[in-house]
Design brief:
The complex is a heterodimer of chains A (510) and B (296).
Chain A: H1 4-26, E1 33-38, E2 48-50, E3 53-58, H2 60-72, E4 75-80, H3 86-91, E5 97-98, H4 106-111, E6 113-114, E7 119-128, E8 144-148, H5 152-160, E9 164-168, H6 171-180, E10 185-189, H7 190-196, E11 203-215, E12 218-219, H8 224-240, H9 242-249, H10 255-261, H11 272-282, H12 287-332, H13 335-349, H14 353-363, H15 373-399, H16 402-410, H17 415-445, H18 457-468, H19 472-509
Parallel strand pairs in A: 1-4, 1-5, 8-9, 8-10
Antiparallel strand pairs in A: 2-3, 5-12, 6-12, 7-10, 7-11
Helix pairs in contact in A: 2-8, 12-13, 12-15, 12-18, 12-19, 13-15, 14-15, 15-17, 16-17, 17-19, 18-19
Chain B: E1 17-28, E2 31-42, E3 46-51, H1 57-64, E4 72-77, E5 80-85, H2 88-107, H3 114-118, H4 121-133, E6 134-137, H5 149-161, H6 165-178, H7 194-206, E7 212-216, H8 224-240, E8 243-247, H9 251-257, E9 260-265, E10 268-273, H10 275-281, H11 285-294
Parallel strand pairs in B: 3-8, 3-9, 6-7, 7-8
Antiparallel strand pairs in B: 1-2, 1-4, 4-5, 9-10
Classes of the chains: A alpha/beta (510), B alpha/beta (296).
The structure holds adenosine-5'-triphosphate (ATP) and magnesium ion.
Chain lengths: 510, 296
């Protein structure tokens, strides 16, 4: 009891030191590796997790980028990012190229360079099986139509006009909503339609090909040498027939590619990967298959849980440090500084955490401050919770009786000695229960960092459930994990509350 | 700034007053609380201050160990001499400003007041030595609730004087024995009765080896049967030669235990003298009138 505050402080310093070490160790540069940005939740057949082995990333774009890397003597390495953050992430230098069904458009060419196209396709309308009246673009007018956010299909729908557009950030959900009847139709690139709707007995592809979509690999404007190397490799793949082979494996060779590459001869290359995919989707799953599958998820979920936990713990350490610093500024510093502390607290509390994370991750690099996703998450969550902690500590400080300071001073202590030995130890006891609660909500808020390319527990849930269309089972499993890791802290909060509310009564009483 | 604190009383020439107050003034917003206090106290004396509620007794005590800073006059106490002459302009300015400052002070507790910030380092060093030599007991005791009885007593010497922990603890045990609470060392303040808490507060102040003890109504919050145990501690200290000033409503104690009784009214000392003289033979009609009301 005598030394409880000392022990807390020591523990906290130790944890901070460990945290700093982890951060420095986790930053490791390497050469000869082609880092490619892609969203693994964007799904088949682009870049997605192998349903048979979730730790493996597959897709026709994975095959293409691996082939390019092989051609150049490099090794390709995937970096996860949300699809609509792919270009900002490239500019942040999180990876060297992005390949993920990114359509070659005028607007994008203003910001980045595109390689020569590696695939060409069209937009495809998908409707429910029983729907007969939607076959052309003009049929979509007045209907509720889903599409992928930021895609070319969305532009086409906007240009048509009069359509109630619903933009999704992943295609699987849009087809689910079409099945449920929340949408009348979905317009997305044809490969997506083929892979997500084509085999579904509830849905069908409707009407003729719409528009033309070409995909290119994206590089930074400044990386002209890299662009040139990639273009040469793609060109060689086209000539050698390797590109066609890959596309045939995925059942993606179409009339447009035939025209585009002037290659009209028939082949008998099997659609091996497409067939694998169909098999995994259509297969009847027994209870034991399901169980085996869930057990198979465990290493991935475990890893994601570790990310969530370490992120939350580090963020809380930052929050406590920031909170203490800010509250001391606010309460004890002279005017310009205490005012700044107030502005900090209010502007953090008055803006969404999501915006703050985006700002730290995407806006700061433009000012020349580049930080890793993990660090950005820690800083974002830490600053945000720091503001709340500061207010929490202020409340604690103010509920220590005023007479305590006078009693300490009249014993000959200086203000700082009184603060350290009399006021703070009491304030800490009042502040621990709400702090524990804050940590639990931080644990849950940490899921927001998936917007800045982190794969933590919630993101992992999304990835797995999108591959298997298994939202219920996985949802319960992941919610269970959150509960489980939160439980010790809930217990701790209860304990602290029971212990310290007694103390609080004492403190108020005397 | 490092203040070296020693316990010896070398400053005291024999026959000197250990406390000497000259023309002390103190203002609060819209209120002139202390209107020229003069008081001399010899070492070992026990002084009782009596007077109506609101006459400025607490304020005077708080000025004596600088929890409030007086505006003008001279205060010599336990070898430290503080002189201050705030100008009329500064006083009237602070009188006008202050009510705002009180509100500000409420928002930021534990922060130095403007008045405090105005004084120079030299003054503050003196104040700190002064406070370590003058022990004070408050109306509401303010024991440290997060520390045990023993820690309450042992803490300040360790922090302020840099005393060894062992030594301070040994001394704390002695003091607790002296106030009759040796068995209560391991308790927390909330586990004490009012009289026990008050005695712990006295032990806590004594741990700093003060040269002077100030008490603000030490028994007013106590049940009648607990009053005596606290007063007994003061009588014992008196025997040991401790200089003590007590603001009290316990007339019987003032009359039987003190060497001098001081009657205050409206920020001034009206009359002072040996208890028998004041209680049975007051010269001033105002003293007489007050005593006729409070007679117990
Ligand atoms: N911090 C302050 N600010 C403004 N006015 C104050 C302050 N402290 C005391 N006063 C006023 O000064 C006057 C004297 O107060 P003081 O506490 O010294 O009286 P007291 O003689 O101790 O009375 P009691 O016997 O009721 O304790 C009172 O009118 C009080 O309202
Ligand atoms: Mg009083």
């Amino acid at each position: 009891m005598y030394n409880i505050e000392n022990r807390i402080i020591k523990l906290w310093i130790a944890a901070t030191v460990i945290a700093c070490l982890t951060l420095t160790l986790s930053a490791q540069p390497s050469k000869k590796i082609l880092r490619y940005g892609a969203d693994a939740s964007s799904g088949a057949p682009y870049v997605f997790q192998n349903p048979k082995d979730m730790s493996q990333l597959i897709g026709f774009e994975v095959d293409i980028i691996n082939e390019i890397a092989k051609d150049q003597g490099w090794k390709a390495k995937h970096v996860q990012n949300e699809w609509d953050g792919l270009i900002p992430g490239l500019e942040r230098n999180d990876y060297d190229v992005a390949i993920n069904g990114i359509e070659i458009t005028e607007d994008r060419m203003g910001a980045v360079n595109f390689s020569i196209p590696y695939y060409s396709t069209f937009e495809q309308i998908v409707v429910r099986r029983d729907q007969e009246d939607i076959n052309t673009m003009s049929d979509l007018v007045g209907k509720v139509v889903g599409t992928l956010d930021g895609s070319l299909a969305q532009k086409i729908l906007e240009v048509q006009g009069g359509i109630d557009i619903r933009a999704y950030d992943d295609e699987a959900k849009s087809y689910k909503d079409l099945e449920f009847g929340r949408l009348d139709a979905v317009l997305i690139d044809e490969p997506v339609a083929k892979y997500y709707a084509g085999w579904n007995p509830q849905l069908k592809l409707a009407g003729q090909p719409i528009g033309e979509v070409t995909y290119g690999i994206v590089t930074r404007k400044s990386d002209t040498i890299l662009l040139d190397q990639i273009n040469r490799s793609i060109d060689r793949m086209k000539k050698s027939g390797k590109l066609r082979e890959i596309l045939e494996h995925w059942n993606m060779w179409n009339f447009m590619m035939a025209g585009f590459m002037d290659d009209h001869k028939a082949t008998n290359i099997p659609h091996i990967y497409y067939n694998d995919y169909l098999e995994s989707q259509g297969k009847h799953i027994t209870f034991f298959d399901q169980l085996r599958r869930y057990i198979g998820f465990m290493p991935m979920l475990g890893e994601a849980t570790l990310v969530t936990l370490s992120l939350s713990i580090l963020s809380m350490l930052v929050a406590v440090t920031v909170g203490l610093f800010v509250v001391l500024l606010r309460v004890y510093a002279p005017q310009p500084f205490s005012g700044m502390a107030v502005i900090f607290i209010e502007s953090i509390r008055g803006t969404p955490l999501l915006i703050q994370l985006y700002f730290i991750f995407y806006a700061l690099p433009e000012l020349g401050i580049l930080i890793s996703p993990f660090l950005a998450g820690v800083i974002g969550l830490g600053l945000n919770y720091g503001a709340y902690e500061a207010e929490n500590y202020r409340a604690g400080l103010f509920s220590v009786q005023r007479g305590q300071m006078e009693a300490a001073i009249s014993l000959g202590m200086t203000r700082n000695q009184a603060l350290r030995h009399v006021i703070l130890p009491q304030a800490i006891r009042l502040v621990i229960p709400p702090m524990t609660n804050d940590f639990i909500s931080l644990l849950k808020d940490s899921s927001l960092v998936s917007v800045i390319t982190m794969v933590e527990l919630t993101k992992q849930y999304q990835l797995i459930s999108n591959t298997y269309f298994n939202y219920i089972g996985m949802g319960i499993l992941v919610a269970g994990i959150y509960l489980l890791i939160g439980l010790p802290f809930v217990k701790l909060a209860k304990l602290a509350e029971r212990k310290f509310t007694v103390d609080k009564r004492k403190i108020i009483k005397r | 700034m490092k203040v070296v604190i020693d316990d010896n009383m070398n400053y005291l020439q024999s026959g000197d007053d250990i406390i000497s107050i000259k023309d002390l003034h103190k203002h609060f917003p819209k209120l002139h609380v202390l209107k020229g206090i003069d008081l001399q106290v010899k070492k070992g004396q026990l002084i009782s201050i009596i007077g109506r509620s609101g006459c400025g007794k607490t304020t005077l005590l708080r000025c004596l160990n600088c929890l409030e800073f007086f505006d003008s006059g001279t205060l010599r106490i336990a070898g430290i001499t503080l002189t201050r002459a705030k100008s009329e302009a500064a006083i009237s300015k602070s009188i006008k400003q202050k009510s705002g400052n009180i509100r500000k002070g409420f928002r930021t507790p534990f922060k130095p007041t403007d008045d405090e910030a105005e004084l120079d380092d030299d003054f503050h060093i003196k104040v700190q030595i002064l406070r370590s030599r003058v022990g004070m007991l408050f109306q509401n005791l303010n024991l440290f609730p997060h520390l045990t009885v023993m820690e309450n007593v042992a803490k300040a010497p360790i922090i302020v004087k840099g005393e060894e922990k062992e030594k301070s603890i040994r001394r704390a045990i002695q003091l607790l024995e002296k106030v009759g609470l040796k068995d209560f060392m391991k308790r927390y303040p909330y586990q004490l009765s009012g009289g026990q808490a008050q005695r712990v507060a006295i032990a806590r102040a004594l741990a700093m080896s003060p040269h002077v003890m100030l008490y603000d109504e030490p028994t007013s919050a106590l049940d009648p049967e607990l009053v005596e145990e606290v007063l007994q501690v003061m009588r014992n200290l008196h025997k040991e030669g401790m200089t003590q000033i007590i603001v009290t409503h316990a007339m019987h104690f003032a009359r039987t235990a003190s060497d001098m009784v001081v009657y205050m009214e409206d920020g001034k000392i009206i009359e002072s003298g040996p208890p028998e003289e004041i209680f049975s033979n007051a010269k001033d009609p105002r003293t007489k009138q007050y005593l006729s009301i409070v007679k117990d």
